């Protein structure tokens, strides 16, 4: 499986990081080794002093597809989830300054939290899903998929132009504003449409 991630898909997050608004989706990949096993804590890696949480709505691909037409994209997924794209922000900044790829800052071991999955039939309109991240009992991120620059079906169609999507692949759809640093003993909880989707302790 592969994890396909979308960057800069919420205007407020673009603004908070002082990035340029893209003309098309920003795509990057996390390896399967980046998945944090659900029974494990997240350990801050020794190579970064500025690990940020980024809560995101996830989509699990259920069938093989290439050059998928947007109007047929809904046929390629049944499950919606929530997760965290942990980012070594200090390392990312250094890489961006040099025009280098982000993989070391985005794809390190344990950097992808994948929570529980819900059938999309259990949810309301996918283009207006409410989600949030709680840090030590305080809401630090809050988003709604209606604020995405590119919606789920648009993203699937776009990504499939470049990468063949396969059963089990996971699409991270971007994060809203409110990203921030984690420190040891932080406790993170992700909520999607009132459902608690994951919880993670930081070490």
UniProtKB/TrEMBL annotation:
Keyword Mitochondrion (UniProt): no
Keywords: Hydrolase, Metal-binding
UniProt KW NAD keyword: no
Residue ranges annotated for the Fumarylacetoacetase-like C-terminal domain, each copy included: 2-181
Coiled-coil regions listed: none
PANTHER family given in the database record: ACYLPYRUVASE, ACYLPYRUVASE FAHD1, MITOCHONDRIAL
GO molecular function annotation: acetylpyruvate hydrolase activity; metal ion binding
Organism: Pricia antarctica
Record lineage: Bacteria, Pseudomonadati, Bacteroidota, Flavobacteriia, Flavobacteriales
InterPro entries: Fumarylacetoacetase-like_C, Fumarylacetoacetase_C_sf
Protein name (record): FAA hydrolase family protein
Pfam family, one: FAA_hydrolase
């Amino acid at each position: 499986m592969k994890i396909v991630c979308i960057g800069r898909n919420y205007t407020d997050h673009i603004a908070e990081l002082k990035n340029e608004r893209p003309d098309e989706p920003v795509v990057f990949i996390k390896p399967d080794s980046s998945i944090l096993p659900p029974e494990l804590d997240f350990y801050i890696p020794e190579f970064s002093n500025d690990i940020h949480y980024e809560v995101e709505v996830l989509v699990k691909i259920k069938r093989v597809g290439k050059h998928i037409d947007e109007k047929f994209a809904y046929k390629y997924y049944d499950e919606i989830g929530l997760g965290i794209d942990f980012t070594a922000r200090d390392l990312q900044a250094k890489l961006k300054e040099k025009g280098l790829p982000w993989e070391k800052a985005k794809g390190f071991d344990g950097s992808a939290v994948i929570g529980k999955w819900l059938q999309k039939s259990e949810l309301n309109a996918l283009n207006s899903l409410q989600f949030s991240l709680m840090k030590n009992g305080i809401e630090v991120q809050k988003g709604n998929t209606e604020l995405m620059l590119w919606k789920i079906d648009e993203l699937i169609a776009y990504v499939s132009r470049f990468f063949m999507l396969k059963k089990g692949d996971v699409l991270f759809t971007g994060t809203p504003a409110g990203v921030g640093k984690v420190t040891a003993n932080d406790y993170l909880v992700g909520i999607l449409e009132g459902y608690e989707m994951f919880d993670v302790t930081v070490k």
